Amino acid sequence: MATTSKTARAPRPAYRCSECGWQTGKWVGRCGECQAWGSIAETAAPQGRTSAAPVTTPAVPIGQVSVEASAFRSCGVAELDRVLGGGLVPGAAILLAGDPGVGKSTLLLEVAARTAGTGGARARTLYVTGEESASQVRLRADRTNGVHEELFLAAETDLGAVLTHIEEVRPSLLVVDSVQTIAAAGVDGVPGGVTQVKEVAAALVRVAKTRNITTVLVGHVTKDGSIAGPRVLEHLVDVVLHFEGDRNSRFRMVRAVKNRFGPVDEVGCFDLSAEGITAVADPTGLFVEHHHGRVAGTCVAVTMEGRRPLLAEVQALVTPSALERPRRTTSGLDSSRIAMVLAVLQQHVGIRLASHDVFASTVGGARLSDPASDLPVAIALASATFVSPPPAGVVAMGEIGLAGELRRVRDLPQRLAEAARLGFQMAVVPAPPGSAQGARPARADRTVEGMRVVEVPDVVGALRVLHLVARTKHALEVVDVPRSEER
Fold first, then answer.
1. Count: domains in the chain
2. Per UniProt, where does ATP bind (predicted)?
3. 296 and 273, same domain (yes or no)
4. Which structural domain, as residue segments, surrounds residue 24?
5. Cα distance from N-terminal residue to C-terminal residue, the chain
6. Which end of the chain is flanked by fewer CB atoms within 10 Å, N or C?
7. Is 103 among the annotated ligand-binding positions?
């Protein structure tokens, strides 16, 4: 009897994005998940089905799982402990990314030195550098007083050699500077490429989990500020930190973007100098200028950086322009928000600045992205236009809408408490919803921790409280700034 043979159907090829891991059944030029170009590549088809395998540890009820092995341990830097949610967690994988020269290596060398300085086997630290020689790192350690017996240093660029150092030293804290400089043998691609970074990071995270070693990886960033390498790198680690700072300023900030062990809205403040990096517990004084008297064109804003209120001074300068297209220059502020505030001042207040140059900046290199800084910007612009300084000891906060209304801001009690602690006597804040419709007076005063708090419904009311606009016959007096004689 003739037998019929069935032709086995070939497995359908699969394609995967090397950046985010998105899969598709056919090749496309652009990833449908992360929108990256040229990142789709064919993956090997699975050969058969995966059978059951022995387990490493049996499953137990979650209430019987011990948490003592994963307790927080201080890294010696209070501001970094604050960002991490309490300190370093054994077995955690942390990715620290930032611009070149911002101070990533200096901060991690300080953390490694302070961890090693606590003494004992649990404090043993291994610092692996792939960007510098061991002697160069030693010079920085001498300058920052970071030489300790339990701090081991190795200069390696091969993943196998790094794993050998981990076997020999058996550290409790591992710092790899940086993950883009380590290469894995037998893996295609150059160091820093997508395939290499993925393999190196996966191997280091696997060692961190199996040996309960806190691992900190330094990551490079691209031109637009995103972390270089595959997007899956951020998924592999437990914590992603961004190190930010201006090259012209000593102030640095560490911001948590992802944190499996704590909040993601915390920031840490540091001061980078030739002697090293130090934590700044109260950075408000860096962003507020101490004037001898009242100065026109200034206003102090209260913003929130994570869960920490910070006071920053906004300065504005308005001058007649001889150009057909007047300048609009900003520093530390969003230029689109400044354009919106100028449009609101012209439409609802009557301040016309179409023929004037406008300069707006912050003090100390602070970057204000909080919408609550809209009202301080408007007050500074109006004060600079009329050359009339606002009252002394005034802070303002509030988001301005296109209709000129002031919208409520989050964490208002914390902002007011911080302003009162620093000695400010008056705060201008948005009125609660409904006050503009007659439910409450257009202006209400109250006292919070010895500070007078004035609630106003719109930007016109805020400027009127500070005596920057006049009111005649229940209508706003439109002020037209005279044009320059040259025009």
1. 3
2. 98-105
3. no
4. 14-43
5. 105
6. N
7. yes
